[in-house]
Design a protein that fits this description.
The complex is a heterodimer.
Chain A lengths: L1 H39 L5 E6 L4 E6 L2 E15 L7 E8 L7 E2 L24 E5 L3 E7 L3 H29 L4 E7 L1 H10 L5 E4 L4
Parallel strand pairs in A: 1-9, 7-8
Antiparallel strand pairs in A: 1-2, 2-3, 3-8, 4-6, 4-9, 6-7
Chain B lengths: L1 H34 L14 H16 L6 E6 L4 E6 L2 E11 L3 E3 L6 E3 L5 E4 L2 E4 L2 E3 L2 H7 L11 E3 L5 E4 L5 E3 L10 E3 L3 E3 L1 H10 L5 E4 L1
Parallel strand pairs in B: 1-14, 3-12, 11-13
Antiparallel strand pairs in B: 1-2, 2-3, 3-13, 4-5, 6-14, 7-10, 8-9, 10-11
Classes of the chains: A alpha+beta, B alpha+beta.
Chain lengths: ~210, ~220
C-alpha cells in the first residue's frame, strides 16, 4: 500500500511540473501573439486572425472582430507556426476573379439593371493564401454536393502526396515551410478572399 | 515475360524511391510539429511565473477588448452588402446596402484610371449633409461618354443622393439611392448606398467622428 502511494506521489511530482511547463509555454506564445495583435490594431487596416483551438477565424480591424468565420476542419503541417505577424504576399487560385472594364459611353444605351460587377459570388472558395516566411494556407469549402465532394477528395489526396515532397524541398533549401489546411463554409471561404489583400497582416495561433 | 519483369523492377524501384521521399517528408514535418509545443523562451519578460503570465494574458486581452468603441460605430461588409450600426458588441440596426462594383474605367484621352472599389479599413464620418447635391466628378462624364464641362455649375446634380449623406473622406459617402432594386448588389462607384429608412437611422445615430469599419 505504501509502495503504491509512493508511486502515485512520484507520478504526481513528475506530471505536475510538466503540465505547468506546457501551460507556461502556451501563455508565453499567446502573450506574444496578443502583443503582435495590439501592434497590428494600431493601424487602420483589416487583418486576419486564425485560432484553430477555438475553431474560429476572424476578420478584424482595430481589435474589433468584424466577421467571425467558424472552421469546420483544420490541419497543420511542417514547421511550427511562429508567434509573429505574417504578411499576405499572394492569393493563389485556379480561377482568378476578373474586374470588368467599363467602356465609356456604353452605359447610356444599356439596361440600367444589368449588373457587371465583381461580387462575393465571383470569388473562389478553393485557393491558397501565400504568406511570407514560408507559410501557406490552403482554404477550401465544406463538401456540398458531388462536385465539391470530388474536388475535396482530389485535394486531400494531392495534399498527402505533395506536402512531404515540399517539406524535403524546403528543408534542403534551409527555408521554413508551414502548410495549413482550413475548411470553411463556402461563403466564409469567399469572404476571406474578398476581404484580404496583398500586404494584409495575419496572426495564426498554434493548434497545439 | 522477361520484359514484364524488367518493368516490374523499375516500378518497384520507383515506388521505393517515392515512398522513401514521402516517409522522409512525413518524418521532417512531424518532428517539427512534435516539438512545436515547447515555446522558445528567448525574451527576458517571457521568463515569468505561471501566475504572472496568466495576469499578463488577461491584461493584454482586456487591452484588446478596450479598443472596441464605447460610442456608436458603423461596420460595413462590402461582400454581403450589409451595414451594421453597432454599440460595443451590440448590433442596433442592420441594413442592406450597395457598395463598390470593383469595375475599372480608363480615360480614353489620358493616363487616368479609376477602380470603383469601396475603400477598406477604418474611416470616420467627416461631414454630414441634409438634402445633398452631387457634384459629378470627371469619371461620371467619361463613363457616360460626355465632355467634361468647364463650368462647375454644370457638374451639380440634385436629388440623386437621397435625403442625407455622410462623407468619410476622398469623395466617398454613405448616401441614399433612387435604385432601391439594386440594394444588396455591388453596383456603386465606391460610395455606400442605403435605403431611405435605414439612411435616416444612420444619419441620426452617427455624428462627425463616428468610426466606420469597412471590409
Amino acid at each position: 500500500m505504501i509502495r503504491l502511494k509512493l508511486i502515485l506521489l512520484f507520478m504526481a511530482l513528475i506530471a505536475v511540473p510538466s503540465y505547468a511547463g506546457d501551460d507556461e509555454a502556451r501563455y508565453v506564445r499567446e502573450n506574444r501573439l496578443l502583443e503582435e495583435e495590439l501592434s497590428l490594431a494600431r493601424r487602420p487596416d483589416i487583418y486576419f486572425v486564425c485560432n484553430p483551438k477555438e475553431k474560429m477565424a476572424y476578420i478584424k480591424a482595430r481589435g474589433i472582430p468584424l466577421r467571425e468565420l467558424p472552421m469546420n476542419d483544420f490541419h497543420c503541417w511542417g514547421s511550427p507556426v511562429s508567434d509573429i505577424v505574417y504578411r499576405l504576399s499572394k492569393k493563389s487560385s485556379f480561377f482568378k476573379p476578373d474586374r470588368d472594364m467599363i467602356t465609356p459611353g456604353e452605359s447610356k444605351g444599356k439596361d440600367n439593371f444589368k449588373i457587371e460587377a465583381l461580387e462575393l459570388a465571383d470569388m473562389p472558395s478553393r485557393y491558397t493564401l501565400v504568406f511570407d516566411r514560408g507559410m501557406k494556407m490552403g482554404i477550401r469549402p465544406s463538401t456540398e454536393g458531388i462536385a465539391s465532394g470530388i474536388g475535396n477528395i482530389f485535394y486531400s489526396s494531392m495534399r498527402f502526396l505533395i506536402r512531404p515532397v515540399s517539406m524535403i524541398w524546403y528543408t534542403l533549401k534551409g527555408e521554413p515551410y508551414t502548410a495549413i489546411d482550413m475548411v470553411l463554409d463556402q461563403n466564409d471561404a469567399r469572404s476571406i478572399y474578398w476581404s484580404l489583400s496583398e500586404g494584409s497582416g495575419a496572426i495564426i495561433y498554434s493548434p497545439h | 515475360m522477361l520484359k514484364n519483369r524488367k518493368y516490374l523492377k523499375i516500378l518497384i524501384v520507383l515506388s521505393v524511391i517515392f515512398l522513401t521521399f514521402e516517409s522522409a517528408g512525413y518524418y521532417l514535418a512531424n518532428r517539427d510539429i512534435w516539438f512545436s509545443h515547447k515555446a522558445d523562451l528567448r525574451r527576458e519578460d517571457d521568463k515569468m511565473s505561471l501566475n504572472a503570465l496568466r495576469e499578463r494574458n488577461s491584461a493584454l486581452r482586456q487591452r484588446l477588448k478596450s479598443l472596441t468603441p464605447d460610442k456608436i460605430y458603423i461596420v460595413i461588409d462590402t461582400g454581403r452588402n450589409k451595414l451594421y450600426l453597432k454599440k460595443g458588441d451590440r448590433t442596433i440596426r442592420e441594413a442592406v446596402i450597395s457598395s463598390g462594383s470593383g469595375s475599372i474605367l480608363k480615360d480614353p484621352a489620358g493616363k487616368r484610371q479609376w477602380i470603383f472599389d469601396t475603400p477598406r479599413g477604418e474611416h470616420q464620418v467627416k461631414k454630414k449633409f441634409v438634402a445633398p447635391v452631387w457634384t459629378r466628378p470627371d469619371w461620371a462624364f467619361i463613363e457616360e461618354g460626355e465632355a467634361i464641362p468647364k463650368d462647375p455649375r454644370k457638374r451639380v446634380e440634385e436629388g440623386v443622393l437621397g435625403d442625407y449623406a455622410l462623407g468619410f473622406g476622398n469623395g466617398y459617402f454613405i448616401h441614399g439611392t433612387l435604385y432601391t432594386r439594386l440594394l444588396g448588389r455591388n453596383v456603386t462607384h465606391g460610395c455606400i448606398r442605403v435605403g431611405d429608412e435605414d439612411l435616416k437611422a444612420v444619419y441620426s445615430a452617427a455624428g462627425v467622428g463616428t468610426r466606420i469599419y469597412i471590409f
